[in-house]
Design a protein that fits this description.
Helices cover 37% and strands 22% of the residues. It has a five-stranded mixed barrel. The chain is an alpha/beta fold.
Length: 265
């Protein structure tokens, strides 16, 4: 009854199934490994942020450019505070407020964005304490430039003068007449009356949308493997039933039916 499995048609079906199932399992396992790697990267990034708090601060130049190995490290830099901006719609401890961002002009001629602290409520320059005058040395956690639209960073435009949606060199260079470092720091101890902004893990190291996409693709590939097996058994069962009916004479012979058809005149 199963001699049909030796036909060229079924040889093709069987070869396809034997190749498709391992391929689906391999792809599902690979996507799962990507998800697990992102989970481990997230844990490592969190540990790095915590470990960096106890490490000695290093000069800013030693930590640039910012990458996953230097993000969150304690950096120290000397300069003079210049232009001050507000970054609205930022949360700390679940409360909405705004960052106080002040550009620190260094001897190199470039300015480093420094988040001096956070205040609750709507962005209001009148509530912000003035930055220290003269030359200052600041220490804080180094952070990579933000990308508008990613990780909760607003990409809205049309903000009032004196505000910026993202802390990035690309955004700030249009607001000040001097070059800006492609990085920023958040002070360990906020200036008077403000709350310190905690450092965050570097980009692409958290349980973000991409991580859960990997997990979703894992499920899809294993579902595909199961679907291939299901369809193979379904085709096998239908073909076996057809062969059984033919053996019992329950399936009419096409040639006999053709002979019985009346000849058209």
């Amino acid at each position: 009854m199963y001699r049909f499995l030796l036909t060229p048609r079924w040889w093709g079906i069987n070869v396809f199934v034997l190749l498709a199932i391992p391929f689906c399992i391999f792809m599902g396992s690979w996507q799962l490994s990507r998800f697990e790697a992102r989970v481990e990267a997230h844990r490592s990034a969190d540990r790095q942020v915590e470990t960096a708090k106890t490490e000695a601060a290093r000069p800013l130049a030693d930590l640039l450019p910012v990458d996953q190995s230097t993000s969150g490290k304690r950096a120290t830099v000397t300069g003079r505070y210049a232009r001050q901006l507000l970054v609205p719609d930022r949360q700390v401890d679940g409360k909405n407020g705004f960052y106080v961002l002040t550009l620190l002009r260094t001897d190199s001629g470039k300015a480093l964005p420094v988040v001096r602290g956070w205040l609750p409520g709507r962005a209001d320059a009148a509530r912000v304490p003035a930055p220290p005058a003269g030359e200052v040395t600041v220490t804080g956690a180094l952070q990579a430039s933000e990308t508008p639209g990613d990780n909760g960073v607003s990409n809205q435009g049309g903000l009032p003068s004196g505000q910026t949606a993202a802390i990035s060199a690309a955004s700030l260079v249009n607001l000040v007449p001097y070059p800006v470092y492609d990085a920023w720091i958040t002070l360990e101890k906020a200036d008077s009356g403000m709350t310190a902004v905690p450092a965050t893990a570097p980009d692409n190291s958290g349980l973000d949308l991409k991580a859960f996409q990997n997990l979703g693709y894992t499920g899809e590939w294993f579902v595909f493997a199961g679907f291939v097996v299901f369809m193979w058994f379904r085709l096998l069962r239908r073909e076996a039933e057809f062969a059984r009916d033919a053996a019992l004479g329950l399936v009419p012979d096409p040639e006999e039916e053709a002979r019985q058809q009346p000849t058209a005149v």
